[in-house]
Design a protein that fits this description.
mainly beta; globular; 11-stranded antiparallel sheet; 62% strand
Length: 326
């Protein structure tokens, strides 16, 4: 008990000590949960997000569900809501309950999912999560961490009134947290590469540290059972994103990763919680079925090269160009 209160106060800043659990709730103003389900054989993608927010009137949640093909997008603000204190998980007003091994969400009678996650491959037990030593730094504007690198998804979903049975789909889940969202960010995920066994995820944004702007990015690559992490200062990561293209170049002492993403369809516009105002901003332009080309090298040898046709690519609209709400 002597050490518990200082540790809890430290974690409320968003930080985690070495060998801590970034997937566990921190008590931050916003704890975000995200699940992405891909059925490559059916050409189907489902995403579900949940932002648990600590408001003056009690905790509330911003929920959303979207799917490809079609333009299904639903979102809602509900209360009460809570982040699971013991691990990755959230629940919101009987509308959503999700964790690393199951996901149940029902936004209305025509938009719901009830899924189980099997054969889960979690983030490996290391000193730090996807952001490396930055996880130990308190007070960052945003933290990010993949929790389920891959899993098999089974169950049912209803998309715009059409029921779908899922049995051979893959699942990915991640978490982000902090006082709110970055003013401008980029993100991507892909795992429908030929042959399976490969996952790539990246995230970055424009932030301020000690009053100075900077744009860090982190890249995670799964090659079978092996996980590679690229994050400053342990690696050099450069990223550039527009509304239709994403380019990420990561270099460490041993490995090199090149990611090229292209989006040709109109994106889904998804909500981002405004914690203080208890509302959402439709600032997330997320492509559910984009193309990502990935190349991973060690020295002069190519370890993997391939293309994923059902990738997720996201660009967060800067606040100055945002003009909507909910």
């Amino acid at each position: 008990m002597v050490f518990r209160r200082p540790l809890e106060a430290y974690r409320r800043t968003g930080a985690d000590p070495p060998f801590g659990d970034p997937a566990r709730a921190h008590g931050a103003a916003m704890e975000g949960y995200y699940w992405r389900i891909v059925d490559s054989a059916a050409g189907l993608v489902i995403v579900v997000l949940c932002g648990i927010c600590r408001g003056a009137d009690g905790p509330w949640a911003a929920l959303a569900m979207a799917a490809h093909p079609g333009g299904l997008t639903r979102h809602a603000l509900v209360a009460p809501a809570a982040a699971e204190p013991g691990g990755f998980g959230a629940r919101a007003a009987g509308v959503l309950r999700g964790s690393a091994d199951h996901l149940s969400v029902r936004l209305d009678e025509e938009a719901w999912a009830d899924l189980r996650l099997r054969s889960v491959m979690p983030w490996p037990r290391t000193a730090f999560g996807a952001l490396g030593p930055a996880h130990a730094v308190p007070g960052l504007a945003q933290y990010w961490h993949p929790v389920v690198l891959t899993a098999r998804a089974e169950g049912e979903a209803c998309l715009d009134g059409v029921r779908r049975r899922l049995s051979g789909a893959t699942a990915y889940a991640e978490k982000n947290w902090g006082p709110g969202f970055a003013r401008h960010w980029w993100w991507g995920h892909a795992d429908s590469f030929p042959g399976g066994g490969v996952t790539v995820a990246f995230a970055g944004g424009r932030l301020a540290l000690a009053g100075r702007p900077f744009s860090p990015s982190s890249v995670v690559v799964r090659l079978g059972a092996r996980v590679l992490r690229f994050v400053p200062p342990l690696a050099s990561v450069r990223a550039a994103a527009t509304e239709t293209s994403w380019r990420v170049r990561a270099r460490s002492v041993r490995h090199a990763v090149d990611i090229e993403g292209e989006a040709s369809r109109e994106p889904h516009l998804l909500p981002v919680p405004d914690v203080a105002a208890r509302r959402v901003e439709m600032r997330s332009r997320q492509h559910l079925a984009a193309v990502v080309r990935l190349r991973v090298c060690r020295g002069g040898r190519t370890l993997f090269e391939g293309e994923s046709p059902l990738a997720g690519l996201e660009l967060g609209l800067p606040l100055r160009t945002y003009g909507g709400g909910g």
